[in-house]
# Entry
Amino acid sequence: MDPTTRTHSSPDADRAERKGVGPGPGLGPGPRLGLGIALAAVATVVWSGSFVTSRALHDSVPPVQQAFWRWIVALAALAPFAARAAWRQRHVLRRHLGFLLLASLLGIAAYNTLVNQAALSTSAGTMGMIMAASPVLMAVYERVGGVRLGVRRGVGMLIACAGVLLLMGGGRPSLDFGAGDLWMVGAAACFASYSALLRHRPREIDGLAFLFSAFVLGTAMLLPAYAVSLAVQGPFDPTPSTVGPILYIGVFSSALAFFAWSRAIALIGAARAGAVYYLQPVCVAALSYVVLGEETSPAQLLCMALILGGVVLSAG
# Structure
């Protein structure tokens, strides 16, 4: 995505955008727009389900083990489509190993593990709302890099920050934040850093090769923590209630949604597809209510309005 649109995306959306696919012949402007919006909405709903899944598994699968097996499943799903491209570009990938290692640490190993850690004590709806404010962190990185933000963007950032702080304070001004909220802020910071890094991805690296390599390296980084988790906490019980959600986040959130988002961008452009992603916190709140029985309080709705309003204003 371009600098403005990228702030609307997710770790999965960023990966998808880097590849892209052709819109294909035979579709007029109307059908192309409708199909593109539908695909972007599907990807958004699937990615929203990741927060609900993490929350659902919080008392049965340790965070590191959940992250590790997510990427194992994702690798298995992506390998038939991307392994050959990564092998062809192995010399290019080796030249940019430092970039790949940092991207894998931020976007694969750290981000998802922190989300899972946050899910131990934070509702899925709150997690989705905090993540919706990640564009604010992206804007901070841009300002540090010398980009002028402008009054409108600065005001939008302040409004979004106020929404996040109120949300973390339980709907009232407070600095008494829960541990899960702080873990989620850390996850949002990792995502923002990852997104900022993606802007500098070497052009010679193919999108699928980059994605597959990041999956491999990120999974390898999780191995030591995974071994410690096994030794201290023991392995989780592989029942349908644990394996099913992990398959969901591995296959759907990490593979199929990637292709849906790529197709959506090709059909309607990154700006329109990114705008659809604004629905993410709403989708998370709805899914968490249906699946987990979590209710959204009036204070949370106010915080959601502040966060989304601030992000939209700063992106305008």
In short: Residues 240-276 form the longest helix (37 residues). Confidence is low (pLDDT under 50) at residues 1-9, 16-25.
